[in-house]
User: Fold these one by one.
Assistant:
Number 1:
Amino acid sequence: MVDESCIVEKFLELAPLSEEDTRLLAELEKDVQTYPAGHILKSAGQKNPPFFTLRSGWACSVRLLPDGQRQILHIFINSQIMGLSEVGADCSETELMALTDIEACPFTARDLHDVLSQSSRVSQLLMITMAREHSLLIERVMSIGKRRGAERLGHFLLEIRFRTKSRNNRIHIPFNQTVIADALGMSSVHVSRSFSELKKLGLLQTDGRTLFLPDVEALAEFSSFCPRYLEVGSADLMPADSIPRPDPQLIPGDDAP
Amino acid sequence: MVDESCIVEKFLELAPLSEEDTRLLAELEKDVQTYPAGHILKSAGQKNPPFFTLRSGWACSVRLLPDGQRQILHIFINSQIMGLSEVGADCSETELMALTDIEACPFTARDLHDVLSQSSRVSQLLMITMAREHSLLIERVMSIGKRRGAERLGHFLLEIRFRTKSRNNRIHIPFNQTVIADALGMSSVHVSRSFSELKKLGLLQTDGRTLFLPDVEALAEFSSFCPRYLEVGSADLMPADSIPRPDPQLIPGDDAP
DNA sequence: CGCCATCTTGAGGTCTATCAATTTCAGTGG
DNA sequence: CCACTGAAATTGATAGACCTCAAGATGGCG
């Protein structure tokens, strides 16, 4: 049993959990490991691919093309579950890589299955988690398909800004522009130029890899960024009459329904 | 109660179902409606958005940008559940539109919730369903991000070819090239030119909207298409010792031009 | 037959990739 | 302290992919 479980905390933002659900979830995080930046947590082609919860650091999922090009599909930050998009697959298609030194807890499909079969509540929360990840990917499609370089980058930075819950509009990007390029489907050269463009427009200031967004609203307008897709809304999947609804505010450590 | 439930059939491809699970799933399809081509089943901004199962015809999910551009995210064919990617959202962000005349069964988040809370087995199958939809979107990202026009189109056609389970490599596309363009993040003019390119390369023959792929292997090579992401693999989410495994063979469907 | 949506084709311009050269900067070691 | 090093970022030049606009061709259908 882990003294502090990341996903329990995360899920408590969505809805209150029973003692039993808490215990089940914490079980997934019993094995805390550390991995260095650049470490491949899961490689493409791997049978019975593992899952991980990410306790600290940054990681990403990557898909490789035969010609050696790579596309970064998702960037994981604190408390996310990695590998969920491949539940039910015999064989892994995407790679998981640590972008920084990370702490993560590996678990198996079997572990996941055990949790799911024991709590329909947790199953629902996992579905919602998957749906949120899906909406991140949808925004990625929108960016790559419809936005030009600088807009893509602006959108990306705003997403990081909101997901890290930075309150001073200052974000730290712990990886290089090539990673951003592979995530946004553009060349690293063009990423650099897009940075310049945002700076020239007064929408961005940089100090090494620490970035400052002086006018988030203007940048959001410029990038057609709408934070709604990042919001937690547990709505009617759990109707009010069947399950107590949490206060829409963030819930502090202890739950009291 | 419906005499024949599409999703039950669909889910039986994944795993055997109990009587009770079958009944639960069929419940979702008790309300069979017909909608004309072009009908908006669900619009962006809608509160408590509904879900649908698609019994016949083609539909798609669409995301609109402030400047009026649209991106088609997913094309739905027979027996798919539409709206799953927005479970847990208070408000719909994507639109659902019928591409042809369709038969579909609307149901509410509440209906879905009832099913989920009564069967952890069905919950698991729904998660797998979501993961498969996710992998379709991943391939879309790969296409838009890394493949050039003709490759994108080839990949798209092969995906249709496999999803419709056409055995004679003949597919019928019941919508115009503008739809394809919006799905692949390119202009309709470029779609037309990409069609020409595939024809010139001998990878495609057309007769109106009926297409013939004379050399699927060559086209797959050309488009870096790998059908694995379309495969049904229920693997270890339901370990063999806990639940009997279905035959991995694809279930034949009837194709009539 | 004529209408309309759709598809095709051409021309010019924009965006982005690629290649290559240069600069920056943090480490490293003399 | 300063030169050396290598990764990363920037900048310039060129080429290719793709978009947009516009005109013309095609084909289904009343």
Number 2:
Amino acid sequence: MEEANLTPSSYIVLGMVSTFGPVTSYDIHQWAENSIGHFWPFSRAQLYAEPRRLAEAGLLNEKQEQGGRRRRIYDVTKEGEAELTAWLKEPTRAPTEIRDLGLLKLYFSQLSTEEGLTHLAEQQVETHQQRLVMYQQLQAELADDDKAAFALATLEMGARFEQMAVEFWQEVARDPPS
Amino acid sequence: MEEANLTPSSYIVLGMVSTFGPVTSYDIHQWAENSIGHFWPFSRAQLYAEPRRLAEAGLLNEKQEQGGRRRRIYDVTKEGEAELTAWLKEPTRAPTEIRDLGLLKLYFSQLSTEEGLTHLAEQQVETHQQRLVMYQQLQAELADDDKAAFALATLEMGARFEQMAVEFWQEVARDPPS
DNA sequence: GGGTACATGTAATCAGTTACATGATTTA
DNA sequence: TAAATCATGTAACTGATTACATGTACCC
């Protein structure tokens, strides 16, 4: 019941439960997959372990269905709500992590060939272009929904990143460093 | 001695050892910290565990100093080199992960206040601006070094990201969604 | 009513971090 | 030569993933 230290995953779960009412782990998975899961992925199994921990810490409450599948249903507690809003207010020091295998490969490309590098760059252009299109579609789908303002904002950031990445890799393909 | 499955961290270590000749874990740490560690951080302890694994898999060889500190010194093997260049060539499917606490908070900002959001946005502007400056300084330092072309290219991507983030958060601060 | 796809969960494992501990080198 | 700093390493823990297992609903 003590102040467990909360990881980013904890806040994702806490936020999802707060936002989308009483939910099962499966529900959280569905929501997360189509939103922040695009930027910050995690496995489904996490979404079973994490709510348990939060429940033990008193930030969620858990009830289990009696009949049927005996699913566990989570809901935020007063303490959870408080924890979450406190976190939202507190300053964010940690720098953005950009985990990108393409960038890693670029960094080590002196061990590759110019041809290999060009090929990498072309692939990356394609991949990022696809992602860009996907984000744009999601944006279009959410455009009407006025509950979706914040989801749209984060998507916008994603789209701009992809746009930037497309341009970057196009330049690399056109004029590879050496 | 069997084909361990290699994680991104494995390739980072493998790449660092290949690029910078025989090195200790500490050396790897130094190199990584000032380059890809900015995008893809990991703990120093990782850099002790990982080379061990790679050595067991036959991709690095490890010798230990006899006198003094008995440091372990790693060097890439033929197999390691082969594994690395194969990886560099193979297509990169995994999407970029953008792990950013600020974005997470933005996504959940309907649970916050407009004031809180504005405050978040202003902080984020500042943080990203600082990072941008840091990358620009690093770029300036490396500008002369012709060995540094690839490091410079990755830094350039970092800088563009930060630039984009600064603009994005400025817009959020100016005109917060709701 | 049998098959297929969706929904739900746990156990085992492993990657990765925190915390601790100590050795060597420089500097005052 | 003491203090401070840099260098080096490991043990213990825990977060996170993979793989497995099974239940429920739908559809042909």
